[in-house]
């Protein structure tokens, strides 16, 4: 599934959170969205998920305007995971997956729950309450929820934030593996530059609601004469004038 | 309407109730306390008031019906607030569920929560105070239906506020019913209100419900016109509530308040 954003803009009264941005995620590709806090990443994801109404511009899904498509049909092919959005803590992992499986209209739900649980090593705590899990376990549950419907487009907001290196690596491996097997398009917002370098085919760098640069990780590193993506990010985040 | 999704969202709340005995106890505790309190007040009035003379249970029946309204509204609000408190709000609103399916799920689940609290309380009143709400007979079903629709409507209006203004609107959720209670003429006849307030009270279903309840218990007369009027007014407000909910949802999407809603 291809996602394309054309001249997307969001204004909140006198403040413009996202300014006329354009990008595209081709089928089976991963786009990294980088930028300092408050640069408009969350607002952009919110608009793509249908939670925020854009002030201007278009979101195209396989060349069709999101606004003209059936909202439920499109959302059933999306999913989202973020450490800042949780699942009900008093419910067990299995109950949470069952509920979201039903909301996403997943067929043969028991088998799908077993599948994602096996893949993400959740089986041993399927019957444990979600609130009793460690942050690493919760993170994997959140990822399992985001994959329950085999999404065609996956939105990941800092999927490995606050995870130890071992679990972080496990999650990154899993995303890589899942992407290669399922041809899913991914939008990844992250502050972990190594993660972005590893997972993303293309990157856009945002600052103050605008896209200030874009390209592959290596092309950006080369263009700005830095040794790695982290240094490139710092350069772009701190000094926009250098670009002009 | 996809009933599998409605069932899915209802399950979320059934699992929550099932998972915690204190939660079930809490649902039963408050209505039962109300029954105790109003049971004794009722007993006192029955002995000391000429209006309520020989009409044992009118006040207590009113207390039970009012609590039914209160519980149905609070149940609705609570289920919505649970999504905010658990930071699950975004997950819910990005899932392919229609707004009408969310409303249906909350409406259906609220009745279960309400009945868990109200059935034991209503049954408790029989041996303790010799008062049975079931004495109202078949019209009781219509009165409860009308109260339930209006309770859900208040819940809808409060959740619309939560969507529009975020968790800061929570206090209104608790205050909403107390605001309308004086106009509902729950424990007293409408004639007690000043003339101008009577006009306002009559555009609410509560006054018709509680006047009818007293009419049945005190005069042993059933006015189906009054019952139908109460239901019709409740349905009107419910439809208004649904419209307000949709408007709030659309407004929240413009203001961006649906994202990252949490405590």
Structure description:
- The complex is a heterodimer of chains A (244) and B (263).
- Chain A contains nine helices and ten strands.
- By secondary structure, chain A is of the alpha/beta class.
- Chain A folds into two domains: 3-77 and 151-243, 3-Layer(aba) Sandwich (Rossmann fold), CATH 3.40.50; 83-149, no CATH class.
- Chain A is globular.
- The model of chain B has no long low-confidence stretch (mean pLDDT 86).
- Chain B has one domain (3-255).
- At the A-B interface, helix 1, helix 2, strand 6 and helix 3 of A face helix 1, helix 4 and helix 10 of B.
Number of helices of chain A: 9
Fraction of residues in β-strands of chain A:
15-25%
What oligomerization state is this entry in?
A: heterodimer
The SSE order of chain A reads: EEEHEEHEHHHEHEHEEHH
Low-confidence stretches of chain B: none
Structural class of chain B: mainly alpha
User: What percent of residues of chain B are in strands?
Assistant: under 5%
Quick rundown:
The complex is a heterodimer of chains A (244) and B (263). Chain A is of the alpha/beta class and 244 residues long. Chain A is 37% helix and 25% strand.
Spell out the key features of this protein:
heterodimer, A: 244 residues, alpha/beta, Rossmann fold, six-stranded mixed sheet, four-stranded antiparallel sheet, 9 helices, globular, B: 263 residues, mainly alpha, 10 helices, 0% strand
Strand-helix topology:
The complex is a heterodimer of chains A (about 240) and B (about 260).
Chain A (H helix, E strand, L loop, with lengths): L2 E10 L2 E11 L4 E5 L6 H8 L7 E6 L2 E2 L5 H5 L2 E4 L11 H11 L5 H11 L15 H13 L5 E5 L7 H18 L2 E5 L3 H7 L2 E6 L2 E6 L1 H7 L5 H10 L6
Parallel strand pairs in A: 3-8, 3-9, 6-7, 7-8
Antiparallel strand pairs in A: 1-2, 1-4, 4-5, 9-10
Chain B lengths: L2 H16 L2 H28 L9 H28 L3 H6 L4 H31 L9 H27 L4 H11 L14 H8 L2 H15 L4 H32 L8
Helix pairs in contact in B: 1-5, 2-3, 2-5, 3-5, 3-6, 3-7, 3-9, 6-7, 6-9, 6-10, 9-10
